[in-house]
């Protein structure tokens, strides 16, 4: 069979990895949580909602669970999930959050910040820095990929050789 004729050397695998390293790039990702409180329209609403945000921040500082406070006080779209956002590439988080998230350490909360019509408190739950997937983790995948490429190459050469010797009609 064709598969028996295919040999992939460790050097071929490593060379493929080195030449195609960008395929194995993993961008920075974060898990974060948000408490979002709308400012309000009237001065009374604005004052009350800022007090609400201050209360939330003080409760967080006293080690009350961020998610419980978010469920109770947040107006954000993920409030019912405790304000939690699962693994998200940094490029996909709201632009106004990026500089804040960038400066937070894992487990750290932002101060109260005002963005547009909202009062925001962010928490960085976790971060995976941008990196390249190590060779050892992808070498088996690369080997299968190279095997498939060689299989196709051998098949095409075989068909070409048969075509020279015979009339072949593909359906």
What this model shows, in words?
- The model has no long low-confidence stretch (mean pLDDT 92).
- Helix 2 (10-19) packs across helix 6.
- By secondary structure, the chain is α+β, with helices and mostly antiparallel strands.
- The longest helix is centred in the C-terminal third of the chain and has 31 residues, at 135-165.
- The chain has helices spanning 2-5, 10-19, 43-61, 66-73, 98-103, 135-165, and strands at residues 25-26, 29-38, 84-89, 113-115, 118-128, 131-132.
- The protein has 6 helices and 6 strands.
Briefly summarize what is shown.
The protein has 171 residues and is α+β, with helices and mostly antiparallel strands. The protein has six helices and six strands; from the N terminus they run ααββααβαβββα. The chain has helices at residues 2-5, 10-19, 43-61, 66-73, 98-103, 135-165; strands at 25-26, 29-38, 84-89, 113-115, 118-128, 131-132.
